[in-house]
């Protein structure tokens, strides 16, 4: 016998639709994808904080807030000309993506380690997104600068521009020590009237330019046709 009652998730989807429907909440009805970005960013940061230092109840609440953002955007799309998809389409797309990205679970590929999986993902992404011409494509430039730095450095190591096995320039023993060091750098910058965030982003732009130049050079080298020597 199947359960005829809606799930808790179905109830939340229905509540969202009711709030945005005629006769519902005027504020909800006026929102757009763009106007909601600030709330998505805020709720995401609150979820990160709950994961790092919050309680079980904090985590439960903040996961709900982020989930609501997804449902809200999906309801918006369902009623926006030219978009025309809903939360079920979002879920179906994600299910297909996860199944396709895990052929070692749902198919006949083999992966014994996390590194094997990451390598497989790189190959799959290359097939899924053939329009990407750089390892930097797909990296959101609006990420916090430290997270962006980690991503860009990883891409520079991937193409051999930076040595992944090089010894650490500034050895640190744990994240507490690292945090203190980063705080000292920011404090030093502030004391001298410098913007640490802007400085790091500027340096990252330079590193990304180097990555693209290295990729272009590799492509040019690969396109060189060796001519037979003439004695």
Structure characterization notes:
- GO terms for molecular function: nucleoside triphosphate diphosphatase activity.
- This is Nucleoside triphosphate pyrophosphohydrolase.
- The protein has three domains: 8-85, Helix Hairpins, CATH 1.10.287; 89-130, no CATH class; 140-221, no CATH class.
- The protein contains ten helices and no strands.
- The protein has helices at residues 8-20, 26-30, 37-53, 56-78, 87-101, 103-106, 114-128, 145-158, 175-191, 196-222.
Rg, please?
Answer: 24 Å
Number of strands: 0
How much of the polypeptide forms β-strand, as a percent range?
A: under 5%
Biggest β-sheet strands, sense, barrel: none
Q: What is the first-to-last residue Cα distance?
A: 86 Å
Q: Count the DSSP helices.
A: 10
- How would you sum up the global shape? globular
Low-confidence stretches: 225-231
Keywords: Hydrolase
GO molecular function: nucleoside triphosphate diphosphatase activity
Protein name: Nucleoside triphosphate pyrophosphohydrolase
Domain NTP pyrophosphohydrolase MazG-like: 31-106
Short description:
With 231 residues, this protein is mostly helical.
Summarize this structure as a short list of keywords or feature phrases.
single chain, mainly alpha, Helix Hairpins, 3 domains, about 0% strand, globular, hydrolase
Helix and strand arrangement:
Layout: H1 8-20, H2 26-30, H3 37-53, H4 56-78, H5 87-101, H6 103-106, H7 114-128, H8 145-158, H9 175-191, H10 196-222
Helix pairs in contact: 1-4, 3-4, 8-10
Domain NTP pyrophosphohydrolase MazG-like: 31-106
Protein name: Nucleoside triphosphate pyrophosphohydrolase
Keywords: Hydrolase
